[in-house]
Design brief:
This protein is of the alpha/beta class. The chain folds into two domains: 5-237, Spore Coat Polysaccharide Biosynthesis Protein SpsA, Chain A, CATH 3.90.550; 279-349. The chain is 36% helix and 26% strand. The chain has helices at 15-32, 47-54, 69-80, 99-107, 137-144, 150-170, 186-192, 204-214, 241-270, 318-321, and strands at 5-11, 36-43, 60-64, 85-90, 93-95, 112-120, 172-174, 181-185, 218-229, 279-281, 285-286, 292-297, 306-309, 314-315, 327-335, 341-349. The strands form four sheets. Strands 3-2-1-4-8 form a five-stranded mixed sheet, sandwiched between helices. A five-stranded mixed sheet has the order 10-16-15-12-13. Strands 5, 6, 7 and 9 form a four-stranded mixed sheet that branches. α5 (137-144) packs across α9 (241-270). The chain is globular and about 60 Å long.
Length: 351
C-alpha cells in the first residue's frame, strides 16, 4: 500500500539523535493513524556509524558514501520516497503528539507550498526557536553594520520581534521557514524542483523557498505543530561547518544580489566591528518581568533570536548552555506588546 507520508530523516554523525527522531515519528504515525514510511538517510558518516544507524527501525536505510550535505540527503530520500506528502527533517528533532497531523492539515490549503512547526529548544519547552529569517540585501547589510546606529538596530529588532511573536502565537504565511522540519506535497517539488546540492551547508532551503514563493505558493508556519529541535548539536560535531556555511552564503549572495551586491556585503563584513554594547552577565539568569521576554542571538544585531517569556524567573537551561559553541551571545529583554527593546546584555559562553 502506498503511504500517505514519506518522512525523510537526514543525519550526519548523529546516530543517537536520529534514533530519538525516528522513535518519535513512529509514535506519531501510530497514535495519529497515519500510513507512513520512514527513510533514514546518512550523509557519509562512515562505517563507524553504520551499525548504529542500521539498528534504528526505519523502513529504509540509505547510507550515502559521501557527505552530500542536507540538500543531497533530502534529494536521495526524495528519489526513494513513495508518499504524496513529504516530511523532511534534521536528525536532531523530536516530534510532539499531533505535530504531523497539524502539518498535513496545513498542506491541504490550495496555495500551500511548505509548512513548518514551532520548534522548542529546551526540555522545559520555554525557549522558542525562530520561525525563520528571510534574507534580503538591505537586511543582510544591516546585519553586518549592526551596532553603529542604535536607533536603527532597535527599530529592526522591534519589527522582527512583532512578526516572530505573531507567527509563534497565530501562525500563517511567513517570508521564510527554518529548514529543520518542512512538510511539502510532492506536486510542489514537481513544480519547483529539488534542493540545489551546490549549497553544501545551509541556504539550500532558503534558495528553494525563493522558488516556492516565485510560484505564488505560501510558506506556512504552524504553531499547533510542535517539535523539539536540538539546535547546533549535530553541526558542532563537524569541524568543516564554518567553511561550508561561508561557501553556501557566498553562493546565495552572488546568485541573488549579483557580483556587485556580494562585493558590497563582503566589504561591509570586513569593516572593524563597533565597540561592544550591553552589560556583561556572569550567567544567563533573569528576574521575572511580566509582559517581557528575553531573546538570545549569536549576532550583535540580536537577530534572529530564540526567546523565553519572563512571566517568571528564567535561567537558560544547562542542556542548552552545554551545547552552545564558545562565543559571546547577545541578549535582549524586550516588551512583548510592541517588540521594543528594553535592555541589551551580553553573556560569554566559555569552552
Amino acid at each position: 500500500m502506498r503511504p500517505e507520508v514519506s518522512a525523510i530523516v537526514v543525519t550526519h554523525r548523529s546516530a543517537p539523535e536520529a534514533a530519538d527522531c525516528v522513535a518519535s515519528l513512529r509514535r506519531a504515525f501510530g497514535e495519529e493513524g497515519i500510513a507512513a514510511e520512514i527513510l533514514l538517510v546518512d550523509c557519509g558518516s562512515g562505517p563507524g556509524d553504520a551499525e548504529a544507524l542500521l539498528a534504528i527501525p526505519a523502513d529504509r536505510h540509505l547510507l550515502l558514501e559521501e557527505n552530500r550535505g542536507y540538500s543531497g540527503g533530502v534529494n536521495a530520500g526524495l528519489a526513494a520516497a513513495r508518499g504524496g506528502n513529504l516530511l523532511l527533517s534534521n536528525a536532531d528533532v523530536v516530534f510532539f503528539p499531533g505535530a504531523v497531523s497539524a502539518l498535513l492539515q496545513a498542506l491541504g490549503r490550495e496555495r500551500a507550498g511548505a509548512a513548518a512547526p514551532l520548534s522548542l529548544w529546551d526540555i522545559g519547552e520555554r525557549v522558542r526557536l525562530p520561525p525563520g529569517f528571510a534574507p534580503g540585501f538591505f537586511r543582510d547589510l544591516s546585519q553586518l553594520l549592526a551596532g553603529r546606529l542604535s536607533a536603527l538596530d532597535d527599530w529592526r529588532f522591534a519589527r522582527f520581534a512583532r512578526e516572530t511573536l505573531r507567527l509563534w502565537e497565530r501562525g500563517g504565511p511567513a517570508r521564510h521557514l527554518s529548514g529543520a522540519v518542512l512538510a511539502v506535497r510532492r506536486d510542489v517539488f514537481d513544480a519547483v524542483g529539488r534542493f540545489d546540492e551546490r549549497f553544501p551547508f545551509e541556504f539550500e532551503e532558503t534558495e528553494w523557498e525563493d522558488r516556492v514563493r516565485s510560484e505564488a505558493r505560501d510558506l506556512l508556519f504552524v504553531p499547533g505543530a510542535r517539535v523539539r529541535h536540538l539546535w547546533a548539536v549535530s553541526a558542532s560535531r563537524n569541524p568543516r561547518t564554518r567553511g561550508l556555511r561561508a561557501a553556501s552564503e557566498g553562493l546565495y549572495r552572488r546568485r541573488r544580489y549579483g557580483r556587485l551586491g556580494k562585493a558590497i556585503l563582503e566589504r561591509a563584513a570586513s569593516l572593524s566591528p563597533p565597540g561592544p554594547a550591553g552589560e556583561i552577565l556572569l550567567e544567563p539568569r533573569f528576574a521575572a518581568r511580566p509582559g517581557a521576554a528575553v531573546a538570545f542571538s549569536p549576532n550583535p544585531s540580536g537577530l534572529p533570536f530564540a526567546a523565553a517569556d519572563l512571566e517568571e524567573e528564567f535561567l537558560l537551561p544547562e542542556e542548552i548552555r552545554s551545547s552552545l559553541p564558545a562565543a559571546t551571545w547577545h541578549l535582549t529583554i524586550f516588551r512583548k506588546a510592541d517588540g521594543r527593546p528594553l535592555q541589551r546584555l551580553r553573556w560569554k559562553r566559555t569552552a
